[in-house]
Design brief:
This protein is of the alpha+beta class. The chain contains ten helices and eight strands.
């Protein structure tokens, strides 16, 4: 059996989170504006250089002025285009000037200085991260595997960038640890029946810590609770026995009620004259008019009633 190093697993999870973050990153909104500013500023400076060459050297000085002004105009155009940044409606630009927090800009157009400022774009939308399967042992010593989904949002971009190295990885690791802790403090029956309470406890635990990071946990949902196959079979047999028990009790209660009703009906028919005869005729009518049914009355009902009355008088 292969043994997986937990450090290697943690590194793999970190790389996977970074790949997911890069895949979900929105396209740059300021690329077109930067290109337009670059060409406009470069054309303007190149034209001014050529015009200066004409003023100083006549018509022959225009190419020389254009060539001399080419490099400075390109450098200035690159610098000017790098100042402009656009933050989307769901983004905030955290600006560090000379390594210190300066401001949070966005959404919309913002200006930064390429040499002095360092900009980090933070997504403030509701973010979703899957919680990988976590192995836990319940309070009654049953091994289970639980996975889920984490929904959170960045409320304070400056704290999220400056407080933790990678807030996505940090909140994911904390959610995994909280999931194992909560699952370990509950029995298997509680784990299966009190899913809403478990989700709320995990969310509260993660929220209490992530608030200092500028994050807000919207919800944590458990997706699957997996158990050993032998335990599943035992639980299935237990459920089947429980259903059989309820069916037996229900049938016994039905038989009891039927017996009580039959006794009450017999008492009523005994007290009412002719009730038994009507019941007999009703039973005969229920047999149907098919030719395959043959009903033979050995003794009429009246004779039976007369014999019953004579017996009572003799007594």
């Amino acid at each position: 059996m292969a043994i997986v190093d937990p450090n290697v697993s943690a590194i793999a999870q970190a790389f996977a989170a970074r790949r997911a973050q890069a895949a979900n990153a929105p396209a740059s909104l300021d690329a077109g504006l930067k290109i337009a500013v670059f060409f406009i500023s470069w054309a303007t400076l190149a034209g001014l250089s050529a015009l200066l060459g004409v003023v100083l050297g006549g018509a022959a000085g225009a190419p020389l002025g254009f060539a001399l002004g080419m490099l400075p105009s390109v450098m200035f155009a690159l610098w000017l285009s790098s100042i402009i940044r656009i933050a989307a409606q769901w983004e905030r630009a955290v600006i560090l000037r000379f390594g210190k927090y300066h401001a949070t800009r966005g959404p919309g157009l913002c200006f930064v200085f390429p040499i002095a400022d360092n900009v980090t774009m933070v997504d403030t939308r509701l973010l979703t991260m899957p919680i990988p399967k976590q192995q836990a042992i319940t309070r009654d010593n049953v091994p289970v595997s639980i996975d889920g989904a984490l929904f959170f949002q960045v409320r304070d971009p400056a704290h999220a960038v400056s407080t933790v190295q990678d807030y996505r990885s940090a909140i994911l690791q904390y959610a995994q640890a909280s999931l194992r802790d909560v699952a370990g403090g509950m029995s298997l029956d509680e784990l299966l029946s009190e899913r809403d309470q478990i989700q709320e406890r995990i969310a509260q635990s993660v929220e209490s810590r992530s608030t200092a990071w500028g994050l807000h946990v919207d919800a944590i949902r458990l997706l699957d609770i997996d158990m050993p196959e032998e335990l599943k079979k035992m639980m299935s047999r237990q459920a089947s026995a429980e259903r059989e028990k309820r069916a037996t009790i229900t049938k016994a209660e039905g038989d009891k009620e039927a017996a009580v009703n039959l006794a009450a009906a017999a008492k009523t028919m005994a007290e009412a004259p002719g009730a038994m005869q009507l019941r007999t005729l009703q039973s005969l009518d229920g047999l149907g008019s098919s030719t395959s049914n043959t009903v033979v009355l050995a003794v009429p009902v009246e004779v039976l009633e007369l014999a019953q009355r004579l017996g009572i008088k003799k007594v």
